[in-house]
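Section 5.1 Outputs to date
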Amino acid sequence: MQTRFLCVSLLFVGLIGGSQAQSLKPDFKTQLKLGKEAAAELRKKEKVLPASDQRVKHLTMLGSKIIATIPASELKARPYEFTFEVIESKEINAFALPGGPVFFYTGLLEKLKTTDELLGILGHELTHVRGEHWAKMVEDQQGKGLLVGVLSEIFKVGRTGRTVANIALTLDGLKYSRNYEYAADKGGFDIESRLGYNPQGMANVFQMFLDLKGKGGDPEILKTHPDDKKRIQRIQDMIKKSGKTFPAEVRLPWVTNERLK
C-alpha cells in the first residue's frame, strides 16, 4: 500500500547520500534506525489512537499472528521492531516503514468489512518490510539522481509529506514500485492462506479501490499503484492455482451486520 514520508525524509536522503553512498543498499541497522525516526516524527504530527482502542487491538493481534510465522533465522538476521498503530484521519491509507513500524488510517479501516481484508493489507505491508523494498529501491536508483523521487515513491508522500518532498516520480521508479507491489500482493496472499483466512479479502480491497475511483475519489492509497483490475485477476488466479477451499470471511469486530449487506 501507500506510505507517507514526513520531514524526516530529508534526513533519509542525507544519510543515504553520504555514509551509505558506497555500499548502495542501506543495511538493516540503518533501515531500522530511520524507520523508527520517521515513526517518531509521524506520532508528533498525527493523532495516533491509544493501544486500548478496539481497532488497534485487532490490528496488533493480526500483526502478532504474522510475526509468529516468520522463521527464527530471519528474525535473528533482521531483528525487526514491529509496531502496529492507527492514525485518526479520513485519509484512505496504510503503510509500513523500514524495520517494522506499521500505520493504518481510520479512513481506510472504515472502508473495510472483514478481518480477511485487513489481514491482506497488513500482510502486504509486512512483505514490504521483510523484502527490504525501500532499501532495494534506493539501491536500484542510486547513481541516477533520483533518490528523493525513490523515497517519495516507496513512502507515497501524502499531504504532510508533500511539504517536504513534492518530487515528480520517474517512469523507471514507477516500474520498480509496481514490481514490489506485486511481490507484496503475493506476500499478502501467502499470509492469508497460511493463517487460514480467505485471500478473497485482498481482491475485495482492490475492488473497493476501483469503486472509489469510479466515484471520482482520489485516495492516497491508489496513486502510482498497479492497475487494480490486474491485481484482482492476479489474486483470483492465485486462489484458483492453490486448489484450496478457503473459509468464509470474518466480519471485523466494529463492523455491523448491516454493513455486510
